[in-house]
Amino acid sequence: MKKLTILLLFVICLFCVSLGFVACNEEYEIDVEGYTLQIEEDGTYSIIGIPSEILEQSTWRVPEQIGEYPISHLGANYRSHGMWAPSKGPGDLGRIRKIYIPECIKSVCLSTYFIKVWETEAPISQIQFKDDFPYHGSYLLSPQEDNENNYTYITQENVVENMIIVKNDEETEATLLYAFGEGELTIPDTYQDSPITKIGEEALFGEKFTDVTLGANMKHIGEKAFYGVPISQIELIEGLETIEINAFKETELTSLVAPSTLQELGDGAFQGAKIVDLNLYDSAIQGIGYATFSGNPLTGVLKFPKNLKVIKGGFSGAEFTSVLIPDTVTAIYTGAFSNCNNLTEFILPDSVTDFSASAVSRCENLEKLHMGMVTSYLWNDPYQIELPKLKEITVSPENTGLTVEGGILYDKRKSILYKCPTLLNIEMLTLNSTTIKDYAFVGNPYIKYVELLPEVNALGIQAFENCSALERVVLSPNITSIEFATFRGCSSLKEINTENIRWFDGSCFHRCSSLQYADFTSATAVGDWAFYMCDLQQVFLGANCKNLGKLAFADNLHLKTLDRSQCPRVDIASNALYNTPLWVDDGKGPSNISKGCKGGFWKGFPTIL
Asked: Domain containing 583: what range?
């Protein structure tokens, strides 16, 4: 009893202290001239909130006093999120990239990584930076040069108007570290007689420049250098060699001409810009990386580099109606031209030997694909498998690896069936290829009957998915498993022989709403969602069945019998029969769904034998 009383008193004390702490917070936070201030123990104040209009500026000079209140700190001492900003959320300082800190500031706790320049009146060593600020991308301008707190030290002489420029250690070159402001920006040719050859990482990130002129000695534009800057045009000068990752991402550029000296474009270099006309012809670029020009309209002139060899990505979402791949190109990879919905044909020159067909995934109006001398059909985009308008696949007559027969793409010996065009008008198929590859017939609306002869021993995932007219399938006796989603969405399927199938993989007959019978004599397992939303009437499990997965037979609205007498120890997921006549729910919700369950079923089922 004594211990209980002590514990109760302790809890009450904690409650009172917490109330007092909240009251204290409220009492010692005040709003003055749009700022929120917090009183400190020495009678000075911290700025913990700043006016919204300041958030729209790129620079902020911290006031030494607001009204009658002297300022000594930035950010709250007891708040885990540091400074907050009105309407911006914790730690968000809007467009502020440069902060001037007066000598009166003793500590700084700002939860943001976007401050690029810290300029202080006092040596930075005299200021306590909390939460590891400033971080490695910041530049520190301080009266004291010998300072262990400096990540990148700069002096006042490094400030040229609204730019910060530094030399390398040998003083042979200089880099524009940061520029802040809006409107026009002209980058000098030199800094203290050293050529300015590079724009640094994130140097103009998020600024509001609309017109930028590069210095005559510029060779490199760093990662995210112009990310989000609203420039609509820029002259890439002769001598420029590299443009790094995301350098011009989400700018307003509408046209681009590459100089002959340009050798490298980083991934996403111009992603999300507004480029209509693109001329790379005279450049020295040999490879276009992932997402380099993704999201650009590219409805006007499109000139590839004259020595281009590899297209890894780059043009997803472009609006051009045709594209002429130069015969210097040898490889095109996944997603390179995905989502180009105005393309109706895609013709590969014979120079291309390394090609992923998913380079044109999600091209909704593509009707013809010519694969030239590509010797193997690859599709590496499992989430976007249909080319809904594809009518024709062709290869060059001299192709040594692929052939087309009856409109269907095979390997040269016809032992592998790769792809049937989605809109190939064919109703009956008799197939004897050893392997039917993944996605081979996906989405075909004409096929009604398929017979797989004994030579067939492998049927790929999603091979016949969404073949809406398919009514009957005769499986090869050598096929012993139905892979993931092989017949998913075949809403007309009524008849298929499954007596030899040991493994029904997940979703293999999902949404086969006309299927009323399947043979489970040889089945060892029925995967998750395997027969979800079919119309099975009864299920008889063979002696070897060990497992029924989640929602395996869910939404079979006429399923009244499940006979497991041959395999009484089968492991059955508790929702395997969800929303069937065999489903029992006591009305208390999902948390009680397995009450009284034995092996996944509810007691008292008269139809479970």
From this structure: 425-609
